[in-house]
Amino acid sequence: MQRKIVFGLLAVLIIIQFIRPARNIDDAPQPGDIANIYALPDGVHDVLKAKCYDCHSNNTTYPWYTNIQPIGWWIDWHIREGKDELNFSTFADYPKERADHKLEEIIEVLEGGTMPLKSYLWMHGDAAVTQEESQRIVAWIASLGIVPH
User: Which of 28, 35, 63, 138 has a 20 to 30 Å separation from 144 between CA atoms?
Assistant: First the structure.
């Protein structure tokens, strides 16, 4: 009986490896990208690309372990949630009021230390935003006249 359960679980694990989510990879130019609508100071766009774009853009760099299910499904869910909340690739599509609100939220999550997600940092420690990087982004947003309420 135990042998059948083990073989059944093993079969399920093998079968689910063939059920993969679509990849969030779009190498085409992104005319709506935030960098195309705002003048970003040196370093700000680099930080956003390096530390935010995997979950908040139309182009994710996938690590090897996303090929293992159900981990790949979990990562896909995080990416979809992240893009629903904020998508730097389509930032130009946001109405001004919403774009300003998204910029306010960036300040809030940076100052609150809630982004990147702790679960993301477990495997991507280099994605942690330093105090200097956070200050640089917050200063840029404040220079646009945007301050969180």
Answer: 28
Return d(Cα 68, Cα 14) in angstroms, integer. 10
* Cα–Cα dist 60/87, whole Å: 12
CB–CB of 93/42 below 8 Å? no
CA distance 67 to 124: 16
Q: What is the pLDDT of residues 6-55, one digit of tens each?
A: 989 999 988 999 999 999 998 888 999 999 999 999 889 999 999 999 99
Q: 103-116: per-residue pLDDT in tens?
A: 999 999 999 999 88
With both helix axes pointing from N to C terminus, report the angle between 96-112 and 131-143 in degrees, rounded to the nearest 10: 150
* Alpha helices by DSSP H, 17-126: 34-37, 44-51, 53-56, 71-85, 96-112, 118-123
